[in-house]
Amino acid sequence: MDSKAIVRLAPLVSLLLLVCTACNPALATSASSTSAAPLPGTQAPGSTGQLAATISADASPAALVNGQPIYLADYERELGQYEASLPLLRGIDPGSAEGQAELAKARTWILDWMITEELIVQEAAKVGITASDEDVDAVMQEIIEESGGREALDAKLAQLGETYEIHREKERRGLIVAQMNQHIIESVPDVTAHVHARHILVDTPEEAERIHAQLESGADFAALARAYSQDPNTRDIGGDLDWFPKGILTVPEVEEAAFSLKPGEFSDVVPSLLGYHIVQVVEYDPARPVSEDNLRLLQERALQKWIDGLKLQADIQILVDTTP
Q1: Residue stretches of the chain with pLDDT short of 70
Q2: The pTM is what?
Q3: Which of 4, 65, 146, 294 stands the most exposed, by the fewest C-beta atoms within 10 Å?
Q4: Strands 270-271 and 276-289, how do they pair?
Q5: pLDDT tens digits along 10-57
């Protein structure tokens, strides 16, 4: 994509998939599942229900999230599962240079996801979101059936370094995360104020001022956009950005200018990281339905903002070196 293009915000990579989906019935390796509640003898004070991988003398934490441990054994198990998945799901040899690079990156993002999931589960507990035994049992029964029976499932889990009880608790947490995710995205309105705007983007403030002077003299905005704009996505259509609500454009300065104007008005020169813009509002609608694509983007942004806020407020201690 040209660096001068104003486009809609790309979806947050895999975020909704991570937070909306519990472990799938085929038991494909997923770094989105963290440990569940400690087994007897390993329960930490204030635990939200995390399972240690094994009952062992070594219950060292890899991280503490508001005092709740993410056990090193669980973290290492997730890393091991990811390593095992590389040749099966991505055709990458873990021993190759590419495989080693993937594993090096995974050391950070797997622990980050485990921390994120723990934060979401903790927040869900505060608002009373839970997963019933019946719901978890239903998920596990589906997994059993798709695995070819309980014995076959146990064998698959053993290959992953898990037990039925550990995986059942992971599925419980996955259901809780999915519900909490839904709770957040449902807060995003599907009807809100929109503007239909267009813009002209140029490289220098001097050129922008010359175009602005022509607009003040009555020149046609769309014609000037076609003649001078450096945005390849909108130049040929007169700079048209179509209808959009707040929170959609990749250039917040343009969006802010658009929502400050009345239909027919155009802005002063607006600087941004892309260059210098002039924005004109064509139409305004105070209560327009949000398109499906834009609603999804707004939901993703709301979810990411909420997760970022949880992390900023949390007491997170990383107790393991995630560098290779």
Answers
A1: 1-58, 324
A2: 0.73
A3: 146
A4: antiparallel
A5: 223 233 333 333 333 232 222 333 333 222 222 333 333 333 333 333
- Which CATH code for domain 15-187+307-318? 1.10.4030.10
Domains of the chain by residue range: 15-187+307-318, 191-289
